[in-house]
Fold these 2 entries.
Entry 1:
Amino acid sequence: MAALPNFFTLANVSLSSSISAKRRVTITCCASPATSFPESVAEAAAVNGTAVERSEVRIGLPSKGRMASETLDLLKDCQLSVRQVNPRQYVAQIPQISNLEVWFQRPKDIVRKLLTGDLDLGVVGLDTVSEYGQGSPELIIVHDALEYGDCRLSLAIPKYGIFENVNSISQLVQMPQWTSEKPLRVATGFTYLGPKFMKENGLKHVAFSTADGALEAAPAMGTADAILDLVSSGTTLRENNLKEIEGGVVLESQAVLVASKRAVIERSAVLTTTHEILERLEAHLRAVGQFTVTANMKGRSADEIAERILSQPSLSGLQGPTISPVFCKRDGKVLVDYYAIVICVPKKDLYLCVQQLRGIGGSGF
Ligand SMILES: Nc1ncnc2c1ncn2[C@@H]1O[C@H](COP(=O)(O)OP(=O)(O)OP(=O)(O)O)[C@@H](O)[C@H]1O
Ligand SMILES: O=P(O)(O)OC[C@H]1O[C@H](OP(=O)(O)OP(=O)(O)O)[C@H](O)[C@@H]1O
Ligand SMILES: [Mg+2]
């Protein structure tokens, strides 16, 4: 994952100790580079005063696009059913949390409204928080991995012509073609992150153009040399003869739960509701991320099997294993040759765990 510029763990906010104890939950806050902070956002954050007077808690959910239905599905899996009578109704309730109002908004407007204090919480892609939050210290990432909406913001160039042998950002920067008269033309919808990334990578001669969609067509049309856009499967780039380059990923993104720092700090109802949502998200995400592996293993005793399992690097950090004798009858005697073992494995470690269990004599998975 590319390092996220301007994000750091927020250790000195009073709520952090209680929330950040959870696995995969980080309370992070965009650092505030005061000098480069755009005035419009700073002003928006400053007029956040209305938030203090509201008693109900407002969460913004994507009203349309690919994040909309998956967000509702996730909440449903957490037993938080959003009651929306029809898709054109922009406000809804979640009966399980009585003082919570759901507002359906476009993802970028969710971030904007968190900054103005019109929303307290929101679910959007990290790319949207980073682009429209513009490093504002007013935004707190409450949960950084809701496990959908995975994509990356990445720079892509044509596979052909002058770019044929260019495969990294440093090679792109060193190309003699880019001058102040003829800068590298980049098409992007990310007008904050794009210039920031190029500056950080030393690309001086660059000009940006914006469009709302189908950016991948710009190089073939001759209107841009490169594009900076979201990539998920990579199909759109491939179909348009474009390639990503080494060092060209601006950020890795997925859906996150974001909060207004001020609302969380100043209004106890927001903090309580944030905790409640977080507990439910964590319980659900932990459960779906875990697999139970059962296997048989030959051995002299349960202790010996336990030692063998716990000596393996991918198995030693687990809670357990549960080891039970498997009884059989041979020549009229009840014997234990095998033990049944049960371990709980995070999804990402599943393959390695099974390999390591096999390596120490596990079978019958
Ligand atoms: N190809 C993709 N695969 C997975 N997630 C994506 C992809 N493209 C975007 N996303 C995520 O989904 C979010 C919403 O994208 P979506 O395309 O639905 O809306 P949008 O691009 O903001 O709006 P619109 O396409 O209507 O202009 C993005 O901010 C990003 O986090
Ligand atoms: O790597 P892939 O899986 O091919 O996905 C990447 C494409 O998905 C997004 O477009 P979207 O579908 O949102 O259309 P848009 O350009 O109209 O926003 C993004 O802007 C890319 O064009
Ligand atoms: Mg889109």
Entry 2:
Amino acid sequence: QESPKREWSLRDFEIGKPLGKGKFGRVYVAREAKSKYIVALKVIFKEQIEKYKIQHQLRREMEIQTSLRHPNILRLYGWFHDDERIFLILEYAHGGELYGLLRKTNYLSEKQAATYILSLTQALAYCHEKNVIHRDIKPENLLLDHEGRLKIADFGWSVQSRSKRQTMCGTLDYLAPEMVENRPHDYAVDNWTLGILCYEFLYGVPPFEAESQTDTFRRIIKVDLSFPSEPQASAEAKHLITRLLVKDSSKRLSLQRIMEHPWIVKNADPSGG
Ligand SMILES: Clc1cnc2c(Nc3ccc(N4CCOCC4)cc3)nc(-c3cccnc3)cn12
């Protein structure tokens, strides 16, 4: 049952270290003074909102994010503002960025990869049944909780930390052909992105990575997909990736079929851990 919506203010929080900064502001660890509850506090500057004319997008994103309740979607508990800033009170993901894990281990085991793909698929299926589409599941928006469970932490403002790889900012790697070709896109773009992420979890690099954005663009629209010989991935994993990285968006494996795919059924830990 819903806790009473109380008015928050900056006085309620002790601000900790910055976690990262984005185009519109920064994210800090913070602690609610009375309960000692740890949260992430995202600060967005109003003059940036006016400058980029994103008031409505921000309002819509915040309403959506507050209404979503799913174990793999980061909670937005509430917000408040002062003269020049808007503060979002977010669930703190104790495990940090999934990217940090991927960078450390280069690539994930098939069990880990399948578990994260299942979590993402379940979160997306939840969003789609609530008619929330196009949660851009770019990797920089994927965080981990204290048990290593995946959390989609996006409401349209990906936060870039300094430690991010160069390719990350403004990369095309995760965009579906219909996006890069500026054609109308629907929620099937998320199915494509699941294929990109599955490949990157298993091989450590996105499938269409190239020296230049132009080459990445060419490889995406051609679906120039090949699997390296190292590290070895199972035939089922490659089958799933091949059934998602399909140019015709209507032919991509549905979220339901992903959950039932042999590679997922065999390898994923249903508890998401
Ligand atoms: Cl929103 C939100 C909720 N929780 C987080 C979070 N949590 C978090 C926890 C732990 C560590 N570690 C750093 C290495 O040592 C281990 C702990 C990093 C981030 N990070 C970011 C973030 C991270 C990077 C850039 N921009 C934002 C956003 N977050």
